[in-house]
Amino acid sequence: MIGDESELLSSKPLDGIRKIKMREEILDVEEGKVIYLYDDNDVLIKLTDLDDRGKVSLTVDYLNDSSGNNIERVVKNADGALIRRLCFKFDDAGREIEHTEYDNNNELQFIAVREYNQDPGKVKVTAYNSDGEIKAITIEDAI
After folding, report:
1. Closest Cα partner for 67 from 87, 98, 89, 84?
2. 40-141 sits in which CATH class?
3. Among 59, 65, 98, 105, which residue carries the largest CB count within 10 Å?
């Protein structure tokens, strides 16, 4: 892991422009490198996957709420074209309650709704297709 800190301008300044410290980690993998970029709260905001020649193969941009929950991931290919977009909603306890996925045309693919008022330690997950029809209902261990 190689750490590199530099001062950058926030992409979404709150009260005008604010400087934030960014931290970057580079992980060497057999097929290339993965670069992780974190904001000043040490929350992941970007992942860049490089092939063995050092060329970008894909990027993932992370949008996080004020609690640090990842509310959106945008996956793009080397040319910057959309591959997939994932959106997440959380309850006040920080638990994921909805996961929505869109395809490369930004068209809805499915929605998964999580309900935590089931048996202790369990969560009910209802998956809907793009037409709003229920495709699956499962009971899972709550994480």
Report:
1. 89
2. mainly beta
3. 59
